[in-house]
Each structure stands twice: as C-alpha cells, then as structure tokens.
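Input set for joint prediction.
Command: fold jointly, output tokens.
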Amino acid sequence: MPGTEIEGRYSYQYPHPAVTVDCAIFGLDEDKLKLLLIQRDLEPFAGSWALPGGFVRMDEDLEAAARRELEEETGVRKVFIEQVGAFGKPSRDPRERVITVAWWAIVNLYEHPVKADTDARNAAWFPVDELPPLAFDHRDILDTALGSLRGKVRREPLAFEFLPRKFTLTQLQRFYETVLGETLDKRNFRKKALSYGILSELKEYEIGVAHRAARLYSFDKPSWNRLRKAGGSFSV
Amino acid sequence: MPGTEIEGRYSYQYPHPAVTVDCAIFGLDEDKLKLLLIQRDLEPFAGSWALPGGFVRMDEDLEAAARRELEEETGVRKVFIEQVGAFGKPSRDPRERVITVAWWAIVNLYEHPVKADTDARNAAWFPVDELPPLAFDHRDILDTALGSLRGKVRREPLAFEFLPRKFTLTQLQRFYETVLGETLDKRNFRKKALSYGILSELKEYEIGVAHRAARLYSFDKPSWNRLRKAGGSFSV
DNA sequence: CCAAAAGTGTTAGAGATACACCCATGG
DNA sequence: CCATGGGTGTATCTCTAACACTTTTGG
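tokens >
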C-alpha cells in the first residue's frame, strides 16, 4: 500500500481479513419508518435479527456487492444507496476478523413486501423505534446509518427516488415527516417545496379517495440539475 | 456474516482481500490548507505522491490503525480523526485486491513539520489546490475527505481541536477561511462566534506583535456540552 | 508618525415560523 | 350531510449580509 514497503510477491505477508457488506434497508409504511431485518439461523447470534449482508467477492466493487445483497433481499435494482462507512472492531465477529462496509437504501415497502423465505431465512420489517436486539455491532451500524439517512434526506432531493413518479404534496410531506421523525407545518412545507421550482404541477389528480382529490406533481430533474449547477441546494 | 450461511470452519471459503488505512492529513500554513503526502519509492506508482497509509493489523481496530499511521508520519497523538469511508474498486491496486478505509485529520503544521526521512521516505506538505498527481485512487479519496472535512468543520467546533488553547478571534476566523476556502466578514464572524457563548474572554492579550495586541479567548467546553445537550448547534 | 491589525453597530432584506378557515369529494 | 383531507395568505421575528472608521501598538 501507499507509503509502505511492499514487494511484488507480498500477498500473504500482510493480514487479509474477511470483508462483508451490510445493508440498512429502510422502507415507509403508514407513516412509520421501517427497517428490513433477517433472522439468523446459524451461530453466532442464531435466532437474533441482523442487517442483511454478505461477503464481498474478490472481483466485485463494494457498491456492487451492496447492490447485490439489496437485490437478493428485496428484488430492488437501481435505487439510491449510500455508504455509511467501514466497521471493523477486531471482536465484532467471534469467528474471525471481519470488516464490514455498511450501506443504506430506502425502498418502497409496498412494492417489495418481504420476499423472505425464498432463502429459508426469516425476514421482516420492523419500525425503527421498536427494533429487537441486533446481532454483532449492527445496532451501532444502524444508528450511524440513520444519521446518514436523515442528513442526506435533508440536503438532497432523495424523496423522489422513493415516491412514485406522480405524487401529492401530502405524500411528499409525509415522507419527510416519517424519515426525519418530526412533524412539519403544512402551509410552510408546501410553500418551501414549491419555491425551488423543481416540482411540476400536473393536470392530474389523485383518484379513488373519499375526499377531495389532491393534485399530482412530478419531480423536474432538469430544473434540479440547473439549480444544482447554479450552486443551489434543496433543504426541508 | 449476518444473513449468510456460514459454517464455523469457513475461513478460507470466502475471499479475504487486503485491507489498509489511508490518511488525509491536513495542516494549515500561512492561510493555506496543506496536505501531507509521501513519495512512493516502489512500484506501482514509484515516484508518485500518495496519502500515507498502511495495512490494518489482524487484531487492530480500524481507527487504531489510522492513528498509528498518523503518529508514524507526524508524531501526533490524540487529535480528532474522522472516517471518510471505504474505497474498494477491484482494480484500485494492480497487485491484488486491496480495500482501503480512509480517514482525515487536521494537525498543527508548525508543531509537526515533516519528520519524513526517518523511513527513507520523502514526505512533504502540498497546498491542497496545487497537488501533484496522486497514486492509486487517492485523488478520489482526497476529494471525498475534503468534502467531509469541510462539512464537519461547519457543523462542529473542531477548530478548537486544532488551535492553541488560547487564541485570538482573528486566528479563529483564519482557520475557517482557510479550511473552507472562502473569506468571511470580520464583524459578522465575530458576532456569530461569540453568540454561542462557548468562548471565554480571557484577560490576556497577544504578545510580541507590531500592532495592537488582540484579546485571547479559550474554548469553553462545558458550555458547549450544555449547548449541545440542549439541542444547540454550532455553525459558521 | 506610520504601518498593521484590532475592535466595534446599524440597517435592509431574506427566510423561518406561527397560525385557522373554507373547499371538494365520496359514501 | 358528514367525515376526511386539500388547499390557501399574512404578520412577525430571526438571521444573514453588507458595509467603514477609530483605536492601539511597535518600530
């Protein structure tokens, strides 16, 4: 490695830990932020719940490994994922030294319900504020992931990666309230959301609701790109 | 690993890449933000400049490894360091698969000048806006590290980890201007810095300057803890 | 007395917050 | 006609940004 004295045939002169990726997969359900967990069937921590994860293959990019795990668990491709960081306390896995690179993603929970037992593994969505004890150092990882998620969501228009292409302002507000865990003032929220000029007002409305139908909007990506290039930001 | 079917004696069933830490060590010099680089003497990238780094030992925490590298290079202990994240493109090191966990630190450049050639390695400080081409993917790492540094410095009172215990408001302002790469209005800066109530006005003044001596301040950590607990923040 | 940096307040504008009622629809 | 959520505007306040001159000190 850079700055160290390494010979060509050095491969096993240096330690080679196992490296995994673990994914904090968030979903929204009825105004609750939920997390997808897998119940372990083997030791250590057999029976405990854990973040889905797996080994990084030798020729596989870290992000690709995370996406592979995500897809195996949920069937979802092409969502936004973000790295949380590396976790590597020597004792975090009792079997051997395992360094994990953690990621988070936020997926539409309705479209991807559980898809669990395919692997004979038990999977379930838990509200983030009512989680069971987690295996390994997954509680630490989750806490860091949640901080990262909330920070990112505040500063970048991630909501639109998650919402359907056409959405109501109330859906958008709910998204923020649920992810951030705080309530927002309706009028102020709408004013602000519209003020960036990155939402297109459609000539369509919600259907099938037992009350006045809400107008639909879509995310105007070109406007966002222009705004971003002009040094603009997006925050709620 | 969590969610995967692993047996006890599985050690070499799964890939074991090499894992390193690399450190972006920043220092301030005459209103310039500088970065400590090491000139490589071996292939690959012999002669190129690189971030200091090295292998993570099998029983060593990632942060401990980063601190060890930092201390080897600069002699500095007990400074604030922050993880940037893991970088692991399969091709990033031509010799074998190497995943690196990057960190940044900010040290006092005067107190820790170069200390380089102890290892027969050439080390030097470069202004961050006049860097030579870097080895491996270190340019990527650096760019990410700089973003992380600037974000962190804006939101947390890191300046005081770096400045001497007693400092002038001008020194504080310089710190921010240098790290953030932008100039700040003197009156507004002072007003804001003092508004948090986390600076103690000392009854001492700068000495030995050829102009009016500036008042010294110190960081009042208890006040900061109180403010932080009350949900307060610090931003410039 | 000159050079160099310290120190100090006010104003205007932008953005944030607080707040309550009528409207449209389906059942 | 009722329950449910949709939709709207204003006033206040706080925070930010812009801006220039006098003071102190050492040389």
